[in-house]
Structure formats: C-alpha cells, structure tokens
Amino acid sequence: MQTSPPKPPPSARVLQLATSSWMAAAVSAAAELGVADALADGARPADEIARSVGAHPPTCYRLLRACAALGLFEEREGRVFALTEVGDALRDDSPHSMRNFARWVGLAADRTTWTGLADSVRTGGPAFERVHGQDVWEYMRDRADVSAVFDDAMTEASCRLIAPVVDAYDFGGIGTLVDVAGGHGALLAAVLAAHPDTRGLLYDRPDVVAGAKRTFQDRGLDDRVEIAAGDFFDSVPAGKDAYLLSNVIHDWDDEPSLRILTNCRRALAEDGRVLLVEAVMPERDGLSPTVTLMDLNMLVLCGGKQRTESEFAELLGRAGLRLTRVVPAGLHSVVEAVRA
C-alpha cells in the first residue's frame, strides 16, 4: 500500500517558502548565462557548457546541479547535462520561451525592489522609488539596457496570454479595435489574423510604436493596421468600436486608472466596448498564489494592483462604464464594459 510522504514540520515549510527567492535567482542566472541555448543541440558535459557560456567551470557545475534539482536540466553520468521539457522554455528561440522574463526577475530593478515590500505594506505606496531613487518609468527611460530586457520579458509574458484570449473572447463584429498601450502589437496582430474583417489601431508611446510595424508586416497585416503615438493620460484615438487594454490597468492605482478609462469612455463610438485583459483577483474563496503575488509585485514596482470583479465594476462605474461580463481566458480574463 502506497503512503503519501510525511508532511514537513511548520519550521521546514517556512524555510522552503523563505528561500524560494534562491530558486528564482538560480533560474535567472541560468537564463542570463544562456545555459539552455548551450544545450539546444543535445546533452553536454558541464565543463563544455561552462566554456560555451563563458563561466567558471566548477562553479557552473554547481549552478547546473541546482537547476537540475529544480527540474530545468537532467544530470547524467559523468556530469553531463541535458534539457528537460521545462528547461527548454529558457531557450531564446523556443516558441514557449520565458528566458527574458527569467532574466528580468534576476535584475536589480526587480529583485532588490522586493526588499521594500514591508515598507510598501506600511505606507501603501510603491517601493521602487525608495529603493532606486526614481520611479519605475523614469528608471526605465534612463537605462536602455534594463528597459530592453523588461520589454522583451513583457512581450514573452504577453505571448503566453494571446492564444487563450483570442480563443475565449469573440472579437468578431468589431470594426476597428484600438490596442491601447499595446507595445509592439502581438495581441492585436493575433486578433486581426483570427478576424479578417476587423481593422486595428496600435496606440502607445512614440519610442514603443517606432518598432511595431514589423509585427504586422511579418504576418501580412500591415494594410489593416494604423499605428499612432500618444499618451493615454491625455487622450486615446476617438470614435472607434472597441478599446483593448492588456495588463495596463493593473499598473496603476485607482485615480490614474480612472483617467485612462475615462479617456476610453469619451473616445468610444456608439455601442462601443472597452476590453480589459487582466488576471482578475478571485474573491476570498479560490485565491491563487500566482495572482496574489502578482498583486504584490505591482504594489512594489509601481503602486498598481490586481482587482476583483467587484473592484473592476466599481472602477469602471466611476469612469462612466458598466461591466457587462468577465470571460475567463486561462490565467487572465477579458473584462468587458460598455457605456453606463
């Protein structure tokens, strides 16, 4: 008769939880060094991997061993390592790559910000500026190298939500869809590819949209897309049928979010929709560690938050909008609203 392993004592469980950041640091280091790419063509000895990634061989073995214990690599006889299915997602060219996201959480911009979590809980404000001396947006503006990793990380994370969102929500019947703060337009491109009668308008900061044209050219969609630059705190392009904001509102506390949503409400065409793609915080029953920790991440980085359905309804109502439904789409949902 098979028995389940004994439950660890409370002290051991606290130790596991408190040291989980060590696991994240190991994953980030492997991503930064490009270990998975070095293993893309098959298993290799640890010393050979170290030479390939420019690392100190004995120390590289220690990192590989730790990552093997986490399930990223498999250690074979003679200190030979191979990729696992999970580790394959650390390859730069994997269709499921999360390498840049793993790199991002290892950078000081993210990792040391979390040292200010207790202060954020005391004050209710973000930790980023107290830790780094600038708010997150100024910091990114002044550090192109960090900003590049962050942008790539957000693109990777966005790519993981695209298929579930496009599959779950019916974008059919939308004449022109405005992707507000849509980055390089990966989600908009997927929606347009699935709905040939829909046109798109990508709207973001000038420095962001400057690199967006290729997203649509590569998929033969450029004749159905307009690209415009601006600031959503000032306005959004007017008179369109739907306004899509993917993981935008969670960046901001209620008052900045209200400005963005009010601008979308003013711009809406008659019978238009506002669509928020967000990881909706469950009510007390069914809380998700992923979403609750994402909520704390938004707090320390920029003072944002993940919201429950009722909190979205209240915020949308203040902006002159009415929540009509929440469509689950994997980890995220599409929060749909119309004019109140």
Keywords summarizing the entry:
17 helices, 47% helix, 16% strand, seven-stranded mixed beta sheet, three-stranded antiparallel beta sheet, 340 residues
Question: How many domains is the backbone divided into?
Answer: 2
Number of helical elements: 17
CATH class (first level) name of the largest domain? Alpha Beta
Order of helices and strands: HHHEHHEEHHHHHHEHEHHEEHEHHEE
Q: What is the topology, as strand order, of the major beta sheet?
A: 6-5-4-7-8-10-9
Poorly predicted runs: none
CATH topology term of the largest domain: Rossmann fold
Class by SSE composition? alpha/beta
Strand-helix topology:
Layout lengths: L9 H9 L1 H14 L1 H4 L5 E2 H8 L3 H13 L3 E4 L3 E4 L15 H8 L1 H4 L5 H7 L4 H5 L3 H7 L1 H25 L7 E5 L5 H9 L4 E6 L1 H4 L3 H5 L7 E5 L12 E5 L7 H14 L5 E6 L10 H14 L6 H10 L2 E9 L2 E8 L1
Parallel strand pairs: 4-5, 4-7, 5-6, 7-8
Antiparallel strand pairs: 1-3, 2-3, 8-10, 9-10
Helix pairs in contact: 2-5, 2-6, 4-5, 6-11, 10-11, 11-12
